[in-house]
Amino acid sequence: MNSAIALVLLLCFLLPHLVLSAPVGSPAKPPPAFTEAAEHAKTLVEKILKDIPAAHAAAITTEGLTLDPSAQTTNLQMMMTSLGIPPAPVLKPPSESFTLDVWVSCMSAGGRLYQGLLGVLSDRLSGLSNLHADLRDLLTHIAKMKEVAQLGEAADQNHSLDLASRLHGNYEVQVAAHLTLTQLRSFCHDLMRSLRASAAYRLPSPTHSAAGTC
Amino acid sequence: MDRLTEGEDCVLRQPLADESLSSFWVCCSCCVTHRNAVKLNFNVSWLCYGFSIMISTWVSVIVMLVAFVNGARNEDDIQPCAEVQTSSSVVPLGSPVTASCVIRDGCHLVIGQAVHIEWRLGDHSLPGSQVANESGRFSEVVIPSFNHTREFLTCCVRASPVQVVGGVEIRAGYPPEAPQNLSCQTNLTTPETLTCSWDPGQQETHLRTKYTLHIKIRDSNENHTYELLPGVHRYTIPRSGFVLFSDMEIYVKAVNELGEAASAPIILEPISAAKFDPPTIQKVQVVPKKYGCLKLSWSLSQQQVWMRDYRFNLEVQLKTADNSQRSEQPIMVSRVRPTRSVDQCRLLHGTQYLVQIRLRYQQGPWSEWSSSRSGVTLESAPTGRLDSWMKASGDHMHKQLNIHLFWKPSKQFRANAQNVSYIVSVKKVPGEKGKLCSTKGNYCTFKLPGKAKKVYLSAINAAGKSLPTEVRIYLPKASSVISDVTVLPHDDRSLLVQWRSLVSSSLTGFVVEWRPLLETDLSLTQFEITDRNQTQFLTTGSFEPYKPYGISVYPRFKDGIGLPQTVNAYSRQKAPSMVPEIQINKIWPSHIELTWEEMPLDQRNGIIQNYKIFYWDKKGPIKVVNADPEERRVVLKDLNAVSPYKAFMMVSTFGGSLNGSTIHFEIEAFDAIAVVMIVTVSGVGLSLLIIFIVITCFSNQQRLKGQFWPAVPDPANSSIRRWTSESTQDSHLSWDNEEPDPMYLSHLSFLDLPVKLSKEDDDPWLSNAEDTSDLGESICGSPFICGYSGSNSDSVPYATVIFSGPCNSPTPKEAHVYLRSESTQPLLETEESFSPKCYHNVARNRMPSDQCFFGPSHDCVPEKGADPGILWDDFPFLRALALNDTQND
């Protein structure tokens, strides 16, 4: 236990030097605050995954719109295009090729995307506020990860959301909510996988923390 | 700015046709200059403003506006007479308040007269603290301590009556205290909320105090402020207002007109303040090869399973399934993940435990307890000794003792298994040989082998057997040293048994034994062994209320068990469930005996204190008779025979009373049985008397015959001497014993009758021999009563007087018949004479004028044809009687 604390303190002390002064060395274990933020983020993703079915059941009343993929009989690809709901950012576990800052930026971008979508839909439907708040919490912790790791600002995909203007009728609202929740669930699954993988991740040298594109 | 007096007031005049516009402007500016003073506020300024921007407005419009303004000014001339000002309209309670009052010159109340200003606070005037200036139109008052929370301070002018010219409201209170005890709790069930509450402080501010809840999320630097309703000291923040895993700074600010105060801020992570759902125990298992250990697998509720990677603090509550042992305090287990099981050791072996857990995250509130799951620890051989109690009965001289052996685990005994049985053996090492009994219960009955002085008791389970407990066989003794056993209910589940005992050197202690009396199962018998110095014992166990228990105290001697003292007891009593039916046992003319059956034990619900009989009749008051509980009978006395009675019985225990049904009864005037008895006895007595008389008659036939049917001497075959000697003696005796015959002759005369005997066949009286058989009686004792002096002649005729009624009848209804006797025998010449007691002629009243002689009365026909004189001459004796009758009449 004492050795772990000592290691954590050492990492806290050395991390700024690793990032700022770009020392040459092997990849280091992430600082506890980063790990803690990632742990909180993972917990929140689990919570979102647990809340999505309840939110779906509360918000969507149209028959045929179900979270069960096997029961999905309607192809809503065209509706998704017409409603202007963008696809979720591709999220991979951080690696040499998918750098930490890109990873975090992608998580942040996805979170913001669905927070925005849920924000629009929450005005029209009830039962989505918990998810909206959970996504806000998730973004808070992603931002904290970014802050702790002193990651550069990656070029986020700026999804211009004009969903509100396209929600002409209730059916569009229902389909948009269904598509949002479905994609959010998929995105959260990706988040869970990548966050679990990040536990074994070692911080790269600062030279690898150059800003990427999500 | 100078104050305007009424004389200096700007008067807007209606412009004349020849007046220039400039002159109007002068006036207008005048009005503007003094606008505030004279309060020609809105209309005037609006008018001036209109004229300044529209110079070329038509004159007619101006005229109309001026006219309007003029009218408005007249309305504003009604001004308050005074202006009251205070240092502050809201002050701390108890602080000084200063106020001033200025009377306007234009106030019509003060024109041309002295002004005297008074101050009033509410309904009370404020004496002495006013300061007036020279003109008397300004006054100031200082209230040293304003002790009202809200009051009106008014300025008055002394007129008739006193006029209020101005006033102001003053409120007082305290600045708010800082809110205390701010705490927040997160609710993770939908909808997720964070509820904060606090105490506003003890002191009432008396002022409207507004509270605001301030939240700052540190990670996102978000700030939220929630305004709260007055009087509400809690607020529920929606999910959008807090972050689960971020520290938040929270405080409450209280603000009123006298100040503000904020609570000490708290910093919390909402997830740390969450009250989680009760966890679920998945299973409770034994730990292999570890005695006294159980492994608990648990999980969060399904709604909170997303927290499964976090560490929680657990509390484990363990209790044995039979509730005999319970961990006094829950066992704390810190920082465990739901994915990891928890081991609990130091438990009893082979014992079933019920396990409950609860959790909290960090220092948050504890969840509720989970539902319990059971688990059994590994078994081992029983350990410890057993306490035993033995009762022996039977003939020990013939070595046939029946032994009732009871046992119970001592404090040190551990069965170490769920299934344990017990073996009683005469051998120390239990085996089939010498085994007296084997049972899973807590007692055993067996016949003691003749030579055995002790037996051995062992506990056995699947894992082994305990060391044997030696039980010495004590023989019963006839000595008793215990007295005054009393039982007091201590509480619902225990009884206090107290007793006294004589001092005995061989006394080693006592055994208190108790058992439910309504149950016959001996396994319910419990006991406790005490030492010799103890004279009371608190029995504990499952005492059911209203159920009887038999409690016995046995003395233990060195060489045996003495005689017990036994009492019945209840842990709690109530009124009986039933009342026995009253039965009438006996009825007497003035009292009655009532009886009833004994109450069943299960219906008593307590110790019967008494039976009370309430009885009453229509008129009288209700009477009460107490009956001895042991006798179950009562006699109601002094009952009225003519009135029907009602009665009922009340049965009382120490816990209440119950009334029975009412019966009706009536006391009969005559007792039928008594009457039958009396009649029977009387009949028997009478029969005996009759039999006695009959026997007497038969035994004394001759005597009676002589008494009632005296022998009439046959004149033909008798002489007077003989008759007299035989018959008169009896008559004489009879005369002594009976009432004297009331029929007497008043006079007797001797007659000289010619000796002339008629033939018997011709004389009708001979045919009626039975009538004449009582000749002596018919004469009514004439031989003794009448003054018969005897006769000198040998032949004296005599007559017989026949009465139709009895001789002693007071008033003979039939006429007397005189018969002439043909006898010529001398009339009792030899009889001794004695004087009669009295004489009177009882037949005189009915003496007919016509006499009948020598014939029955019904044949009595006066013989008118005969010559009476001849007849009387023939019977001088009878004539003398007739003469005497006549004289008496």
Automatic annotation (TrEMBL), chain A:
Keywords: Signal. Residues 1-21 form the signal peptide. One of its GO terms (molecular function) is cytokine activity. One of its GO terms (biological process) is positive regulation of myeloid cell differentiation. Transmembrane segments: none annotated. InterPro entries: 4_helix_cytokine-like_core (IPR009079), GCSF/MGF (IPR040117). This is Granulocyte colony-stimulating factor. It comes from Perca flavescens. The lineage of its organism: Eukaryota, Metazoa, Chordata, Craniata, Vertebrata.
Automatic annotation (TrEMBL), chain B:
The keyword Glycoprotein applies. The keyword ATP-binding does not apply. It holds the Pfam family Lep_receptor_Ig. It is a single-pass type I membrane protein. Coiled coil: none annotated. SMART domains: FN3. It is found in: Membrane. Keywords: Glycoprotein, Immunoglobulin domain, Membrane, Receptor, Repeat, Signal, Transmembrane, Transmembrane helix. InterPro entries: FN3_dom, FN3_sf, Ig-like_dom_sf, Ig-like_fold, IgC2-like_lig-bd, Type1_Cytokine_Rcpt_Type2. Residues 178-276, 278-380, 481-577, 579-672 form the Fibronectin type-III domain. GO terms for cellular component: plasma membrane. The chain crosses the membrane at residues 46-69, 672-698. CDD domains: FN3. Belongs to the type I cytokine receptor family. Type 2 subfamily. This is Fibronectin type-III domain-containing protein. It comes from Perca flavescens (American yellow perch).
